[in-house]
Amino acid sequence: MYILGIESSCDETSAAVVSMEQGGRRILSNIVASQIETHRLYGGVVPEIASRAHIEAISSITYEALATAGVTIKDIGCIAVTSHPGLIGALLVGVNFAKSLAFANKIPLVPVNHVKAHVAAAYLEYPTLEPPFTALVVSGGHTSVYSVTDYTDFREIGGTRDDAAGEAFDKIGRVIGMPYPAGAAMDKLAYEGNSDAIKLPSPAMLGDNLDFSFSGLKTAALNYINSERQKGSEPNAADITASYTRVIVDALVKKMTLAIEKTDTKRLVLAGGVAANSHIRTALDKLCKEKNVEFCKPSLALCSDNAAMVAAAGYFEYLKGNFADTSLNASALDEEY
């Protein structure tokens, strides 16, 4: 039996087929239609354009996923769809398509939390990974720390009080002239600059907590850039990027060091789009080796939004009997936490 996963929470339309054998950890297909080139014209995701693009792509993407996996809709035992959180218009496209497909073919439907799906990406590449563990989700909309006690039970133990790390990278990247999304370009450029060139505030909150705040860091970086430009001098993009990246990485390492100590965890899972950042991956890998903690990080392809991770998370919702009917609605909020 197979799970069909459907993802449309932001600017990627994706459908995937994952086998229900071997704990829902074997990918048969994972098709992604990206909208990056479209949104790059505007410097960020335009929700209305994203929703329309999902409508245009979702049907063909789904049947391509089935064909690539060598199965038909009759072989599907469950349909898993991202229902929250995300852009509400984009989510509604995926949810309504999944409901219709499930209803027409009498297939069980399970709603999936997008954050849980990012964490579930690790199951696809670490066959022996199982809870309990600590997860750090770093993306455009999230910078959160979770205690994962069961495959479907998460407890947030820390997170950002305002902006997310991914949004912070994109904002400063755009200001220094990098194309959207700025993450990959900033990752590369950071190796060319002096990470001690600019003094910036840490986004790690003071005190015995696992919280972050990126708004002050963004403001400080913007003030520095504007100040230099007002003096008639274009700031060094490599030095800004290197310094900015170092401060973010140091903050994540600081709080994850505390998380490891507070939870006595033996496994740390890194997930989300910003989990693709090589500086973050290297620093957390070093930390985990020092603390004798297993470090699990998805491959770059599974860091970004995709339906294979939705199917992987959906497998465990299916086992718990967390089914939905045609009344299922989408939500922009991370309601479970």
SSE layout:
Layout: E1 2-7, E2 12-19, E3 26-34, H1 36-40, H2 47-69, E4 76-84, H3 88-105, E5 109-113, H4 114-120, E6 133-138, E7 143-150, E8 153-159, H5 165-175, H6 183-189, H7 215-230, H8 237-263, E9 267-271, H9 278-291, E10 294-296, H10 300-303, H11 307-320
Parallel strand pairs: 1-4, 4-5, 6-9, 9-10
Antiparallel strand pairs: 1-2, 2-3, 6-7, 7-8
Give your account of this protein's structure.
This protein has 337 residues and is α/β, with parallel strands linked by helices. It contains 11 helices and 10 strands. The strands form 2 sheets. It has a 5-stranded mixed β-sheet, with helices on both faces. Strands 8-7-6-9-10 form a 5-stranded mixed β-sheet, sandwiched between helices. Helix 5 packs antiparallel against helix 8.
Could you list some keywords that capture this structure?
5-stranded mixed β-sheet; about 325 residues; globular; 11 helices; about 45% helix; alpha/beta; single chain
Beta-strand proportion: 15-25%
In whole angstroms, the N-to-C terminal distance is: 31 Å
Sum up the overall morphology in one term.
Answer: globular
Got a strand count? 10
Count of helical regions: 11
Radius of gyration: 20 Å
Order of H and E elements: EEEHHEHEHEEEHHHHEHEHH
Structural class: alpha/beta
Helix percentage range? 40-55%
Are there runs of 5+ residues with pLDDT below 50, and where?
none
The largest sheet has its strands arranged as: 3-2-1-4-5
Major beta sheet, specifics? 5 strands, mixed
Average pLDDT rating: 95
